[in-house]
Amino acid sequence: MPEPRVPARAAEDGPWHAEAVCRRDEAGLFFAPSKEPTAARLSREEAAKRVCARCPVMVACREHALLQPEPYGVWGGLTAAERRVVLARMRRRSAELRQAPGAGSIAAAG
């Protein structure tokens, strides 16, 4: 399995992933084996999300997975499918803001 990509951070902060709770768990919990049955996948993903829920760097992990974007696994409490939905909503919202009549004029009027 390839090494996950990690965004650059300020040296004084240290890498966010060093504090990740999942570093102490089995990686198989976060990444699907090939041909995994649906019921097993859903159970594994819920278990991974429970680990994420108690992680102090969940938000940084999620941001990383959305910015990369990470195509596989549970990152920051979101599955790959959930991240695709979030990214699609972000793209749609960005397009709506660009197309909105008078976009940017509110800031100028303020």
Automatic annotation (TrEMBL):
Assigned keywords, A-Z: 4Fe-4S, Cytoplasm, Disulfide bond, DNA-binding, Iron, Iron-sulfur, Metal-binding, Transcription, Transcription regulation
Top-level lineage group: Bacteria
Main localization, broad class: cytoplasm
The keyword Iron is annotated on this UniProt entry: yes
Free-text cofactor note: Binds 1 [4Fe-4S] cluster per subunit. Following nitrosylation of the [4Fe-4S] cluster binds 1 [4Fe-8(NO)] cluster per subunit.
Cofactor(s) needed: [4Fe-4S] cluster
Stored InterPro entries: 4FE4S_WBL (IPR034768), Whib (IPR003482)
Binding site for [4Fe-4S] cluster: C22, C52, C55, C61
Record's subcellular location: Cytoplasm
General function of this protein: Acts as a transcriptional regulator. Probably redox-responsive. The apo- but not holo-form probably binds DNA.
Family membership: Belongs to the WhiB family.
Record's protein name: Transcriptional regulator WhiB
Protein's organism: Streptomyces yangpuensis
Lineage: Bacteria, Bacillati, Actinomycetota, Actinomycetes, Kitasatosporales
